[in-house]
Amino acid sequence: MSYPVLVFFHGGNFQTGSANDWPAHGLASRGIVVVTVNYRLGALGFMSLGDSTTGNFGLMDQRLALQFVRDHISSFGGDPQAVTVAGHDAGAVSVGMHMLSPLSKSLFRSAAMMSGSEVSYHSYIGKPALAFNNTIKLGRYLGCTQSIAYDVWNCILTRSTNDIVRATTDIPIEFNRYLFLPTIDGMNIPGNPLWILNNAPTGLAAIPSAVPLLIGMNAQDGTEVN
């Protein structure tokens, strides 16, 4: 007998959180195979030079988890044809992004988004130039003074994880809420999410994973905010 599968992406504004934030025992006791996913966060997950080869590493981590589920969940008693992807906060944003990305097509049959949306203005960076500038800004803060962008990138990668994380909390932010977020790159995020959703019914845009979707708000969400 195979059981339905729930793949869950945690929240935390793409800056914090882990798969351990959401214990799965309750759902697992109801005949569901539950998979909670860790993915790269902050600069390590979303640093970008505004092109199609850098950035969105956190979304790629999530997609790799979905591909693993597709290929191997049957060994854990799960049905690869009955996968629901769900998330809270940034995890909900991630779900919406995967529905719009052609790279994630056919990896799940249904979706649920809790207290988050891919169309929220602070959930992604819409201008590649801004993502580029934020990465260069991080490099300068870390002492990477090279004139060529990819040299700055490689220099950043020589710095310690602690230094990179500390820098992202110290650098002033001009736009959005955070320096590093998912960035429109043409593939992982093919375009402006709101434009895609508004134009899909007219045929001007496509939603590769137009699966049944449950959207809601968690009770008492935001009560820990001072």
Task: Throw out a few tags for this protein.
Carboxylesterase type B domain-containing protein, five-stranded parallel β-sheet, 226 residues, CarbesteraseB, globular, AB_hydrolase_fold
Task: Give structural notes.
The chain is of the alpha/beta class and 226 residues long. The protein has a domain of 127 residues: Alpha/Beta hydrolase fold, catalytic domain (Rossmann fold, 3-Layer(aba) Sandwich), CATH 3.40.50. Helix content is 33%, strand content 14%. It contains eight helices and five strands, in the order βαβααβαβααααβ. Strand 1, helix 1 and strand 2 form a beta-alpha-beta unit. The chain is globular, with a radius of gyration of 18 Å. The mean pLDDT is 94.
Q: How many β-strand runs?
A: 5
Structural class by SSE content: alpha/beta
How many DSSP H or I helices?
Answer: 8
Distance between the termini: 47 Å
Q: Report the uncertain regions.
A: none
Overall, the morphology is globular
> At the third CATH level, what is the topology name of the domain at 3-40 and 56-118 and 191-216?
Rossmann fold
CATH class call of the domain at 3-40 and 56-118 and 191-216 = Alpha Beta
CA radius of gyration? 18 Å
The CATH superfamily of the domain at 3-40 and 56-118 and 191-216 is known as: Alpha/Beta hydrolase fold, catalytic domain
Q: What is the H-and-E element order?
A: EHEHHEHEHHHHE
